[in-house]
Amino acid sequence: MSHFPRCFVVVNVLLLLRHPATAFIPRADHHCSSELKHSGLKACQLHTAHVSWLYDFTHGPEPFVLQAQARDGNSDLDKCARALDLSAAAQGSTVEEVLQLAGVPSRNVARALEAFIGLQDCDPHAETLRRLHHLNFIIEQGVYSFEEAMELISTQSRFLEMNFSFVYKDGDLLVMNKPSDVRMDVPQRDGGERKWPTEFTCSDWLDIPGLVDPPLDKKRFCHNLDSATSGILCVARNQAAAARVVDLFAERKI
Question: Are 129 and 162 in contact (CB under 8 A)?
């Protein structure tokens, strides 16, 4: 046992006294092997160079991160502590069910519904679940702790709305309402990679079958809106219309 840090041995003993089905396993990475997932353990801890990850195997086939503690005393890494259960949330049929199944505490769900009356009218999957995927990405990146994310849901629950709509349409131009915290498209300079696998953009919305008739042969966004900004976005159906709208912006007539 000489290669085990003494502090981990002590903590392991303490944890085993409280939770006999839990074990600490030192490894060079925090990806759980199939042997671990099928070992019968309810939880295990995997050590990286700087972080100790505590996994729970009782939530499904994939490990659920219960805790991430810094081995070097850097408390900022505790922001990676927990994650939302998005697989379970996908089974919900209402906004309230989606939030509860995701692991949002009941008190936070109640506060969210009270803070934003229109939350109940949001599409549970096309809006709320997509927002939870975004929020989970933020948690995983360490920007918010799980607790901070729950407070965001409680006090700024309008964040869970993702309301795309058209405000004007004709044969040359589409004018759409862009929600906040949504990118217009996935930049090709980034290799076309999404920030998280289920990231949903304005371009994705325009690709929904039957939404635009006839379908766009190309997305001609006539101006830019930052991803954090909500507002009106003009999309031209053809190059001539795009050029005209660009000129109107230049002339400050829009």
Answer: no
Rounded Cα gap, residues 76 and 74, in angstroms:
5
pLDDT tens digit string along 186-197? Answer: 988 757 789 999
Q: What do you get for the CA distance between the two ends of the chain, in Å? A: 71
**Alpha-carbon dihedral angle through residues 206, 208, 211, 212, given to the nearest 10 degrees:** 50
Both structure tokens of 204: 């994705």
Q: Which of 79-88, 94-103, 175-184, 185-194 has the lowest mean pLDDT?
A: 79-88
Other CB atoms within a 10 A radius of the CB of residue 237 amount to 19
CA distance 93 to 176: 27
Distance CA 236, CA 248 (A): 13
Q: What is the residue-wise DSSP string for 68-89?
A: EEESSS-GGGGGGS----HHHH
26 forms beta bridges with 47
Q: What angle do CA 70, 74, 77 make, to 5 degrees?
A: 60
Q: Which residues have a Cβ under 8 Å from the Cβ of 60 and sit 6 or more positions away? A: 85, 87, 88
Q: How far apart are CA 225 and CA 233, in angstroms?
A: 7
For the entire predicted model, the pTM comes to 0.68
Instruction: Collapse the DSSP code of 55 into the 3-class scheme (helix H, G, I; strand E, B; otherwise coil) and give the result.
Output: strand
